[in-house]
Amino acid sequence: MWATGGSGTPEGSEEASSARTGNEGPGTRALMEEVVDHRNLERAAKRVRQNRGSPGIDGMTVEELPRWMREQWPGMREQLLAGSYEPKPVRRVQIPKRGGGERELGIPTVGDRVIQQAILQVLQPRLDPTFSDHSYGFRPGRSAHDAVSQMRDYVTEGRVWVVDIDLEKFFDRVNHDMLMGRLAKRLEDRRLLRTLRRYLSAGVMVNGVKVEQRRGTPQGGPLSPLLANVYLDEVDKELERRGHAFVRYADDLRVLVRSKRAGERVMGALIKRFAKLRLRVNESKSTVARVYERPFLGFDLWVNKKGETKIGVASKSMERMKERVRELTNKRRGRRVEQVVWQLQRYLQGWWRYFGLTESRRGLRDVEGWTKNATDRRGRGRVGLFVRESALAQARATVAACIGPLSVHSAPARPGPSTTWRTGTSSAA
DNA sequence: CTATCCAATAC
RNA sequence: AUUGUAUUGGAUAG
Ligand SMILES: Nc1ncnc2c1ncn2[C@H]1C[C@H](O)[C@@H](COP(=O)(O)OP(=O)(O)OP(=O)(O)O)O1
Ligand SMILES: [Mg+2]
User: Fold this and answer.
1) Is pTM beyond 0.80 here?
2) At A398, which helix (H) or strand (E)?
3) What's the gap between Cα A215 and its chain centre?
4) For a Cys-Cys bond, which of A50, A136, A182, A411 suits A147, CB 3.0-4.6 Å?
5) Is the pLDDT higher at A371 or at A24?
6) A138 nearest nucleotide via C1' and CA
7) Cα–Cα distance between A259 and A272 in angstroms, integer?
């Protein structure tokens, strides 16, 4: 089933299934006690409050949390310990997706977010260490950078073909029963399992009416990312067992192979494997291709003159950055110039912080220099002193020179790395 | 070393 | 308005 008729490939073959060892770690029976422990709960409430998220279906804001904790918590605690707690439905919010289309968020009540967070804090330390080393998304201590670097290393080993898979509406299609089955193999506390099940079937509020959801884990629930990793863990382990070189970030899976043929075989197998999980591979976003043709987490790979594989900024990400810079500089809606520059610096610094992983040094170095230039101004040196109307234009010109043409309307494109706009270095009043 | 606040990116 | 997880960085106060 797993291995379709393919011969001579470097990957080994092995039978599936290995059955997890009962439960993870000691004391999985009294997990709910850990969840409702007041220290754990305080930490959870703090996190939810600091996220500054908007209310769920009951309209309670995060500012009202302390009051809620005092008045509603004792009752909730008892219900949780009895395994009889019923979460509220989530609030449906549509937001635009990066690649077009809409993302359906499911926003739980602030109170439910606290409880889910409290559960996460108990489950994450137990479950996460059991996950595959090849899985990077939503996991503490593992970054997108780690995933990209790992993929680059696989490519350096000569695996230049990639099976690129993205799942369709991933969170929305997670099967409740199958997920619960996975969880039941790892956790013994039946009250906790019951509440997790109830969170999954809490449903959505659609103009005053609760609509049952028979599948999916809400995009917006604190627990959902962990549950998603639990759901796909078995696939990770199977790929591992077969000795595949792969990296997974959430629902973005890359298997690196040495030939197109091997890739197509793996792709076919994975489509079937995901179908077994009631998940569908996104046909438009998934393919077998040369790694250099497929961006990953905002980066792409390329080969330098010496034949080394290097990490670069994917062109989509580059275009998005330019667009944002244009948007921040072009027309300023009643903002002062210094405000515009400050915002631009802030954005570019954050951008570079992520994309600084890139090893392509064509002009991007200068973005860094430029950004630092504008930013590294110790003390509370005010931007106001050195910024004048021309600073804005120069900033745009510099970026344009580093990154490419930014706009049609004003691009002198005569940057000069050593332009004089840094003149007001000294402290200011 | 602790705490609060802000920002960027990935999904 | 827009939720969540994770990573990385900055500022400020002790
Ligand atoms: N802003 C977000 N808030 C909460 N969860 C998110 C967010 N972005 C992504 N996720 C989670 C839920 C998604 O199901 C999962 C994978 O992301 P993504 O592939 O971009 O969307 P998707 O799988 O839901 O739809 P698509 O069919 O377009 O791939 O990551
Ligand atoms: Mg997807």
Assistant:
1) yes
2) helix A389-403
3) 21
4) A136
5) A24
6) C6
7) 20
